[in-house]
Amino acid sequence: MTPASGRAEPHALSRRANRSRSEAIIGAVLFLMSAITIVTTIAVVFVLAEETFQFFREVSIVEFLTERRWTPLFAEAYYGISPLVLGTLLVATIALAVGVPLGLGSAIFLSEYASPGLRRQLVPWLELLAGIPTVVFGYFALLTVTPVIRAIIPGVNLFNPLSAGLVMGFMILPTVSSVSLDSMQAVPRSLREAAYGLGASRFEVVTRVIVPAALSGIVAAILLALSRAVGETMIVTLAAGQRPAFTFDPRETIATMTAFVVQAATGDQPAGSLSSRALYAVGATLFTITLSVNLIAQAVVRRFSEQYE
Predict the structure, then answer these.
(1) To the nearest whole number, what is the mean pLDDT of the chain?
(2) Most exposed residue of 16, 223, 232, 274, measured as fewest CB within 10 angstroms of its CB?
């Protein structure tokens, strides 16, 4: 070993030791971040489950699921969550009826019809919708969309799920469009070329090759949009109202689960009271619905995902 190499070897060992310590520190920090996320989630679920359990010690779960009146903040209290669930699903259904066709159509156009330059220009504008605060959507629904609807459709209340659902459809549009677009662009170009080589038109390639091949991603996009629509708060609070009613009429004022959470959280219910625990019961129901939708979306992706080489 030459003197030069003898001097260089300790420096190399020192650099490797410093690198190993740095990697260990980085790994420990990342592990700590992951642990904080997991512990926080477990704590939230634990508190939610504990308060919900205390609620059901005083209220029958049969009444909770079957009663059609929800007045936990009134002197004569009823604890049937079905009006809130129905109102939530009514708004979400209207939102999907608007957002899914528009989002899927936008994704098909951007993936198969638009030129690369036009796609680069349109995608940022489309995703700009995702950056608009939902409170702005809510006031837009109440102050702009609702007067137009009331001028066209008679009997529409000032607060109604129709205007809330229509505006919410544009809120979830970027979710449907971006996820569907990514799924369509992941389809190999060889499938497109093979279909064109057999004489298929562009529309036939889209409907018979691209959409079926990207079906798992499209369904997942729809389910994720549904989950976001169910959990939306500000639009329904401002535009749909806060009067629980068991009705399928989109012209009537209704209340959703998230709107009740806002109403109860800003009230004067003492901690530990039955009315305050009703908030946790609604939150647990909302958590169960959104978790189920997300699990279904993951199952659909695993079941129908295509593997390409």
Answers:
(1) 86
(2) 16
Token code pair at residue 147:
């007067």
Per the structure, how many domains does the chain have? 2
Give CA–CA dist 9/209, Å, rounded: 60
Question: Rounded to whole angstroms, how far apart are CA atoms 8 and 5?
Answer: 5
Pair 222, 173: CB distance under 8 Å = no
Average pLDDT over residues 295-301: 81
Q: Do 213 and 191 form a contact (C-beta atoms < 8 A)?
A: yes
77 in a domain, yes or no? no
Is the pLDDT at 12 greater than 70? The verdict is: no
Residue 64 in any domain: the answer is no
Report the pLDDT value the prediction gives residue 199, as an integer from 0 to 100. Answer: 85
* Alpha-carbon distances, residue 93 vs 13, 50, 100, 203, 207 (angstroms): 64, 31, 10, 28, 24
Is 264 a residue whose pLDDT tops 90? no
Q: How confident is the model at residue 1 (pLDDT cuts 50, 70, 90)?
A: very low
Residues 132 and 218 in one domain: yes
- What whole-number distance in Å separates Cα of residue 259 and Cα of residue 264? 9
* Residues 37 and 157 both lie in one domain: no
CA torsion sign, 234 to 250 to 90 to 58? positive
> Which strand (E) or helix (H) includes residue 264?
helix 257-265
Range of the domain at 152: 82-304
Structure tokens belonging to residue 251:
């012209």
Alpha-carbon span 251 to 234, nearest angstrom:
19
- The pTM of this model reads 0.85
